[in-house]
Write a structure and sequence with these properties.
- By secondary structure, this protein is of the alpha+beta class.
- The chain has one domain.
- It has 4 helices and 7 strands, in the order ββαβββαββαα.
- The longest helix has 20 residues.
- The radius of gyration is 24 Å and the shape is elongated.
Length: about 180
């Protein structure tokens, strides 16, 4: 395991040159330093646990699929009170990779072909060069997408403060009186 992408604290580079037909199982269990780096990178108060279970398997002639799950327990700051809010992440990981020189990846772009994108469908394939793919970085992307962007403590709402409401209504009254005079 070598850290090829310093951006991902849970980087795990898988050699995809000779994958077994059944696939290569990969388990990434983040240690304390990796969890602290994940928390910092994703603006979380803390990451209590992080585990990715992936299967890296051959697809068609030279492609590679990565599938599995990423699970984590995280603590975020409530967007209203800034109190800690605990959350559990359990997200499916699904990626398709094609070599850069693959005709499948370029098929739609050459000869004026059309590429149909379905917002609910699978993502378009990513490309890779050489014989390695950072499956840890892929799992981290799915982890990041699963984090609630607006965590709220239970029972807390975003009601405007009373004084803001009165100031606004005073402004509205002045505006109405000005509009009424013209």
């Amino acid at each position: 395991m070598k850290n090829a992408d310093p951006k991902s604290p849970v980087s795990f580079v898988a050699n995809v040159a000779r994958l077994p037909q059944k696939g290569l199982p990969v388990v990434i269990e983040a240690d304390a330093a990796q969890r602290a780096a994940l928390a910092s990178e994703h603006e979380l108060l803390s990451v209590e646990s992080y585990r990715a279970e992936l299967l890296v398997a051959p697809w068609k002639r030279n492609g590679v699929t990565v599938s599995g799950r990423v699970e984590a327990d995280v603590t975020q700051a409530c967007i209203v009170t800034l109190d800690p809010v605990e959350a559990h992440i359990d997200e499916a990981v699904d990626g398709l990779f094609l070599p850069e020189q693959s005709k499948l990846g370029r098929q739609g772009f050459e000869g004026g072909g059309e590429i149909l994108l379905d917002a609910e469908g699978p993502d378009s394939p990513e490309t890779f060069s050489g014989n390695t793919i950072d499956v840890g970085a892929l799992a981290e992307q799915f982890f990041g997408l699963a984090i609630d962007p607006y965590p709220r403590k239970q029972g807390v709402s975003l009601e405007a403060a009373d004084d803001a409401g009165t100031a606004e209504s005073e402004f509205q009254q002045k505006l109405r009186s000005l509009l009424g005079k013209s």
